[in-house]
Amino acid sequence: MATPARTLGELKRVQSAPGDGVREEMRRNLLVKMRAGETLFPGILGYQDTVVPRVVNAVLSRHHMILLGLRGQAKSRLLRALTTLLDRLVPAVAGCEIHDDPFRPLCRRCRDLIAERGDETPVAWITPHDRYVEKLATPDVTIADIIGDVDPIRAARGGHDLSSELTMHYGLLPRAHRGIFALNELPDLAGRIQVSLFNILQEGDVQIKGYPIRLPLDVCMVFTANPEDYTARGKIITPLKDRIGSEIRTHYPGTIEQGVAITQQEAWTARGAEVRLPRFVREVVEGVAFAARRDKKIDRRSGVSQRLPISTLENAISNAERRSLQVGDSPVVPRVSDVYAALPSLTGKFELEYEGELMGAENVGRELIREAVGEVFAVYLGAADLKTVVSFFETGGSLRLREEATSQELLAQLQRIPGLMQHIVALGASAADPVSVQVAAAEFVLEGLWSQKKIGRSDERVFTAPERRSEDSDLERIERLRRMKKQVN
Predict the structure, then answer these.
(1) pLDDT given at position 470
(2) Do 284 and 196 belong together in one domain?
(3) Is 148 a member of any domain?
(4) Per-residue pLDDT tens digits for 152-200
(5) Would the pTM of this model clear 0.90, i.e. be above it?
(6) Looking at the 3D structure of the chain, how many domains does it have?
(7) 111: burial class by Cβ within 10 Å (0-12, 13-18, 19+)?
């Protein structure tokens, strides 16, 4: 591989003109990837047939774009993945704050340097990482932060007049010259700051305060926003929206399978000890997020982030790991009870409506887990004949699954329930598996029966006959919720 040029003269021997604009460069590299059949935006799951095609269209159209979606929908990750469409290395004037093209310098310092040193002007090579600038919009962001300002300290140190271009302080946008500028949570940016972005989006230049000079920046502007937060936290002003080429809506996973794949990619499950993570536990954890997104007690405008199942799964594994260390079990196998133990990582991930506030976050969380268990149970064992198991409890039988018991002790208890262990095969477990795997599967069967109200269970995890009581009226239900709220407080 040839050594990259180190001076402007060496660069001229291999390149005779400025490179493509950044949006043309992204378009060119995207076309190459598509013709080669490469995966676009590795690590972005669940968007292959929805969001990714729209992003591709925006890039092919050389558009600036905005991603609109609720929290936890991988908007920022998708923006960062756009750097995969940039060239691996591009030349720039060495030491330039805005990565000037040696063939087309913008800043006064680079123009003077090239005029003085000519072909001996030093050249540096910048990577896609160097060409990506990201800023989280907050109400205290100023025009100086984004565009730039006069730098009196630079003027004093260099002995320059304040009107000299050499006294410019470049903001984040000029520093993204020849790259991608990402602005997260655009509605949080004050209206007057949004106005300062008009020119770069339409005419392709900016003017730094106090200087009669327009800098024709080469930049791809990308934004994110939560559309449901506009009224509470500000809004995107209409003229700015009009100048953004493509508006792309993101979304949560459409199926449990997509959610499981995303959580599997993101969650930290590779622990020091051997961990066996049953598929049905993954699906229960993912089902909690799906249940929360449709629950009327949870504010849908706020959304339920994909971080909920990720952190819940990690916490459930940690609880199983702690239990295994205490009782000496191996391998570590999370159970449904561990998902309940992961409530602290779940309750902070959603905002409650009035009815949910009456119940309290923990009670809402328990309801969500129970609902998720019931749905997964219906998939695996919905058609199974579990009458003998239910009959055991209806005729006075009971079972307490103690947290401090070993898997061997629990298995001996579970085996006393007629017909229970034969159903663990449907969950991918068998008598040949480690005891902790068999216990996790058998416990899931009991939890599933309880979730469908075919057997009863107390908070101390004592499984009994189902409770028989009439449905509450609306007034009785609200009063019960108020009592639960007082107990929680």
Answers:
(1) 46
(2) no
(3) yes
(4) 777 677 676 666 777 778 899 999 999 999 999 999 888 888 998 988 8
(5) no
(6) 2
(7) middle
